[in-house]
Structures are given as structure tokens and as C-alpha cells.
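Incident log, support desk, overnight shift.

02:14 A customer reports that sequence design results differ from what the structure should imply. Their input is reproduced verbatim below. On-call engineer (initials T.W.) acknowledged and began investigating.
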């Protein structure tokens, strides 16, 4: 992997181009900026958690607004002269003997010794009638992210099978009134749910009823409605673009990028961080950690390449 000489004034050449300006990408840029590497962060302005109104479980922050967190990160990076942030998109990345050529959506091209994919994942909620107005307000996909904020309230979980049963048991740690909506025949461990006090409704959901973004009740095709204050759902996930595939990165069956413990992908010089490369335990706190760890690895890999 080529390392661009520090101090060069040609701002079309960088030690690393980071694709994505969320917590993971900004964290990586901070570590690299403090290491005096020349870094370009490309931010499309379409964060994966755009519908979220607060980041929970982040040390030192009391449910900070995601946009405010990103803005604070940008302000912090502004003090590092070797870090540049551009509001743009990456149209394509090509590799040659000198590193990577990165074509930008608004035109032009920059070069990089390394690529860091930090563009997150695409999260698509299930197609439940009424969900659009509630998504991110009272319908969530991560209990560890939002469970504390709705603790001790009547909660519901949408899903079926062993994975849904496990998620319902976890959700029972935040409330003693949890309803599992299987939206059809349930095939999980009923006995374990009964012991935990989790009820099951198998009738198909007719619609979610809410007001001003807040869930009020869940209506079923048969039987009475269930008053609920929040619903947790599983999402369909995928890469938000084809960059990883075009670069030749190996993907998991779940659609995330395969990486080692330090964020290295199967392609030399390409790193992946945050939700794009995380199969489990996705959170802002974890994303920040993966960005920091990969940045250390990137800097050390560059030194090793020069030494060799």
C-alpha cells in the first residue's frame, strides 16, 4: 500500500479516503488526523440513522441527536489541518499500481493510498401498514439502542421463530409487559416465553395505529387491539451502494463486509468499519470503536509497507 508523503500540498492525493461521514468514519479520521495522515472524508449526507432522534448508550452523552453528534465530530476534526471533509458521493473506485483512484459524484478524481468504507448499512423496516409515520419515533430495530428510553412501558416485538423468541426474552429485561407479534404461526420456544411473562399474538397485523409519531395500539385481523407504546422489529439489511462488491471485498451471507479484527477486508488497502462490516451488536459506540481500531491498523500497515 502506498503512503502519500506528509506535507504535500496536492490536495488530490491522500493517505486515505474515508467513504462515509458518520461516527465510524469521523472516528477513523480523528485517529488518522492526530497521526498527521492526510485524510479525505466523503459524506453523502444520507446517514443510515437519519430517522433516529437520539443516540442511546454512548458514554458521556445523554441521548444526543445524531446530527448534533456528527456536527460535533466535524468541529473537532476542523482543528486537524491534514483532514478534509467534502459533502459529496463516491461514484467509483478503481485500483492501480499506485493505490486507488476515487471518482467523485460532483466530478473530479482524487487518489488515495487506502480506502476506508464507512458508509453504513441500508435498514429497511418490514412493510407493516402505518409503520412509516412511526419509524424512528416509537418503532425501533435495536433494543440496546432504544430499550432504556421506553423501559417499563407496554412493548411489542415483531418476528417469528427462535431469533424472535430470543429478542423477546432480551426485551423482557426492559419491561414486564412484552407482547410478541409473530404475524402468523409462531415456531419458537413458547415455554421460555411463558416463563418470562411474554405473551404471543399470532394473528396477522392489520395496521399500526399512532399519533404524532407515537404508537398507540396494534390492530390485528382478528381479536382485540393491543395498546402498546413501542414496537421493535427486524430489518432487511444491505450495502447502500456497490463499492465493496466492485472492489472485490468478500461479503457475508447477511450482506456485511468480511473484515478481520482491525477492519482489514479481503482486498489489500481496503478497510471497512461501522455497520457496513459489523454482523452483530451494531451501535454508535461500537461504530466509533471500529473506526478507531481500523485507523490504527491503517497507519501501522502504511509504516510497515514503507519499511519493507
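02:41 Re-run completed on a clean worker. Output:
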Amino acid at each position: 500500500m502506498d503512503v502519500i508523503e506528509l506535507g504535500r500540498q496536492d490536495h488530490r492525493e491522500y493517505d486515505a479516503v474515508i467513504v462515509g461521514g458518520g461516527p465510524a468514519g469521523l472516528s477513523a479520521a480523528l485517529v488518522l488526523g492526530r497521526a498527521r495522515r492526510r485524510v479525505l472524508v466523503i459524506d453523502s449526507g444520507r446517514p443510515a440513522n437519519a430517522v433516529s432522534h437520539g443516540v442511546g448508550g454512548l458514554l458521556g452523552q445523554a441521548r444526543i441527536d445524531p446530527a448534533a453528534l456528527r456536527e460535533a465530530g466535524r468541529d473537532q476534526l476542523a482543528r486537524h489541518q491534514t483532514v478534509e471533509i467534502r459533502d459529496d458521493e463516491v461514484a467509483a473506485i478503481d485500483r492501480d499500481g499506485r493505490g486507488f483512484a476515487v471518482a467523485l459524484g460532483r466530478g473530479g478524481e482524487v487518489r488515495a493510498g487506502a480506502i476506508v468504507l464507512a458508509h453504513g448499512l441500508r435498514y429497511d423496516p418490514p412493510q407493516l401498514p402505518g409503520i412509516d409515520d412511526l419509524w424512528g419515533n416509537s418503532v425501533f430495530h435495536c433494543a440496546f439502542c432504544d430499550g432504556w428510553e421506553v423501559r417499563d412501558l407496554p412493548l411489542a416485538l415483531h418476528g417469528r421463530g427462535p431469533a424472535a423468541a430470543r429478542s423477546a426474552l432480551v426485551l423482557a429485561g426492559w419491561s414486564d409487559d412484552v407482547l410478541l407479534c409473530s404475524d402468523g404461526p409462531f415456531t419458537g420456544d413458547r415455554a421460555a416465553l411463558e416463563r418470562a411473562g411474554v405473551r404471543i399474538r399470532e394473528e396477522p397485523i392489520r395496521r399500526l395505529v399512532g399519533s404524532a409519531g407515537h404508537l398507540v395500539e396494534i390492530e390485528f385481523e382478528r381479536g382485540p387491539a393491543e395498546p402498546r407504546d413501542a414496537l421493535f422489529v427486524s430489518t432487511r439489511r444491505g450495502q447502500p451502494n456497490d463499492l465493496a462488491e466492485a472492489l472485490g471485498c468478500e461479503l457475508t451471507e447477511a450482506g456485511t463486509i468480511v473484515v478481520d479484527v482491525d477492519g482489514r477486508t479481503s482486498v489489500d488497502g481496503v478497510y471497512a468499519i461501522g455497520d457496513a462490516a459489523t454482523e452483530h451488536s451494531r451501535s454508535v459506540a461500537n461504530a466509533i470503536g471500529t473506526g478507531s481500531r481500523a485507523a490504527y491498523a491503517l497507519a501501522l500497515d502504511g509504516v510497515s509497507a514503507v519499511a519493507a
